[in-house]
């Protein structure tokens, strides 16, 4: 099985594609228990004119068309950045068993700032998931310096 860093780097490449397409630089991949990439997700909020079209939500919508809850519990989602509260909740409700992310929200806000309060929603993923009944393994941050470049300009 490929290591976590390789899958985070795939998510980073998807985030780069999102940015080139005029969207925010966020990406993710869904991997099964055998280490096979099942699906990829990119942020499409601008191109789809949909404020809910975050990379993770887009991926989960596709995943649920192909896989059921019992299958997804043995899968992992790798995200370029620590998911927002909406995406964290979507991951929780999907049944996906493990979340691995690159850039932490703390580091993200250090880079992009907190000037636009309409876009600041700082709730750590682990804190939100602690309130759920189902346990979901969380690993991260990983490769923060590599992901930081996406948000630096």
Characterization of the model:
This protein is 42% helix and 17% strand. The mean pLDDT is 94. It has 153 residues and is α/β, with parallel strands linked by helices. The protein starts with a helix and ends with a helix. Helix 2 runs parallel beside helix 4 (85-94). A hairpin with a 5-residue loop joins strand 1 and strand 2 (37-42).
Summarize this entry quickly.
Residues 2-136 form the CMP/dCMP-type deaminase domain. The protein has 7 helices and 5 strands.
Q: Into which percent range does the helicity of residues fall?
A: 40-55%
How many helices does DSSP assign? Answer: 7
Work out the strand percent: 15-25%
Rg for CA atoms: 14 Å
* Overall shape: globular
Mean pLDDT: 94
What are the main properties of this structure?
globular, about 150 residues, 5-stranded mixed β-sheet, alpha/beta
Describe how the helices and strands are arranged.
Layout: H1 4-20, E1 27-31, E2 37-42, H2 55-66, H3 69-72, E3 76-81, H4 85-94, E4 98-103, H5 105-112, H6 125-130, E5 137-139, H7 144-151
Helix pairs in contact: 2-4
EC number: 3.5.4.33
Enzyme class: hydrolase
Domain CMP/dCMP-type deaminase: 2-136
């Amino acid at each position: 099985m490929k290591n976590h860093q390789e899958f985070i780097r795939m998510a980073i490449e998807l985030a780069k594609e999102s940015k080139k397409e005029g969207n925010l630089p966020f990406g993710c991949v869904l991997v099964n228990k055998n280490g096979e990439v099942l699906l990829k997700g990119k942020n499409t909020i601008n191109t789809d004119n949909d404020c809910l079209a975050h990379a993770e939500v887009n991926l989960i919508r596709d995943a649920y068309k192909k896989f059921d809850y019992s299958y997804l519990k043995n899968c992992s989602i790798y995200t370029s950045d620590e998911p927002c509260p909406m995406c964290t909740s979507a991951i929780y409700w999907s049944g996906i068993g493990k979340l691995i992310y690159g850039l932490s929200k703390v580091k993200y806000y250090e880079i992009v700032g907190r000037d636009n309060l309409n876009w600041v929603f700082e709730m750590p993923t682990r804190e939100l998931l602690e309130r759920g009944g189902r346990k979901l393994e969380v690993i991260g941050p990983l490769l923060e310096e590599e992901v930081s470049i996406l948000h630096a300009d």
